Amino acid sequence: MDCLRFHDNHNHELLSQLEIDTIASNRGFSDEQEQAVKLLRDAGLRVPDIHAVLSKQFDKVTWLQKDIHNLIQKMFPGDAEHDAENLLVILRDKKDIDPDFRCDFCLDDYNRLEHLFWMFGESRRPYLRFSDALIFDATNRTNRYKMPLAIFCAVNNHGQTQPIAGGLLRNETREAYRWLFKVSLKAVDGRQPGSMLTDQDHWMSQALEEAMPLTKNAFCIWHIAQKFPQHFRSAMGSAERYQKFVSAFYKVYNVEAAEDFSLHWADFLQEFNMQENQHLSQLYRFKEQIMPCFLRDHFFANMTTTQRSESINALMNKFLSNRMDLVTFITEFENCVTERSKHEVRQYSFVIFSY
After folding, report:
1. How many independent structural domains does the chain possess?
2. Same domain as 111, residue 258
3. What is the pTM of this model?
4. CATH no. for residue 324?
5. Quick one: average pLDDT of 291-314?
6. What range does the domain containing 235 cover?
7. What is the DSSP annotation of 138-198?
8. How far is the C-alpha of 147 from the C-alpha of 9, rounded, in Å?
9. One domain for residues 112 and 152
10. What is the pLDDT of residues 328-337, one digit of tens each?
């Protein structure tokens, strides 16, 4: 393709030199500046104080407090012995940088980290907009210590799944979940979500009811269906019959009218001779928290689909791994939140300019 004509006139104002200097790719540290950061950190100064000192020491300072924070994490990687201690220092610094950042934790009788909750400022603001319906997923073990990762997610106005907050729990008890739900409410000034989709966990469900009595709890069909092979594959006898069983289940799952559900369920059990099966009996007992026909009066932002939960797990697996220490883990979780926020901005910009 040949260039017939070239116009060197810009249709927008050019960036000023200050704006150019503050572009992320131009906010690097010289060796002298890195050494100064290390000395000040060793002396016990926090990130805002380090930024203030260096702003006076060097003439042209273009990096931000978050750049200092990231540099410190690179200089002082967490070790297994002091991992939790280093993490709490990092989180304290984040609070200095971002006044909307929320964090809470509790220690056990031996002064060891037991539970942790965090919510970044860029997540807290969307919560106030999209908290009508949330997903709570605590099935990941993406850290070195195999601590359950609990993720609060919302669906934004573009239909995208957006991480809102996270937590690490030492154990999965009613007390642990209740602690997490209560501190998450404190982080958003007590604003309870309208509905929340969770795993089918007895302690989790009880804790949610105690901490957030105004929130409608429903169980995620994706997590339920993940356990189908271990519960029903051998009982069906063959792969073909098992696939027929799964298809029949989803047919009943998608029954439109609540008053017709019990009749269709009974026919389903009879077809596969599963009237005495404990797992199916449990599903029927919790039908009003699982089956869409019983949830139509509550808003779930289309979160009850299996694709929504799959997207959450794919998103977490993209950024997190089970080899991460706690400091790296929190950093990557923040990267995940930031990436999702940038994606929303790009989507919004596309809609605006396309219009």
Report:
1. 3
2. no
3. 0.71
4. 3.30.420.10
5. 75
6. 224-294
7. EEE--STT-PPEEEEEEE-TTS-EEEEEEEEESS--HHHHHHHHHHHHHHTTT---SEEEE
8. 56
9. yes
10. 778 878 877 7
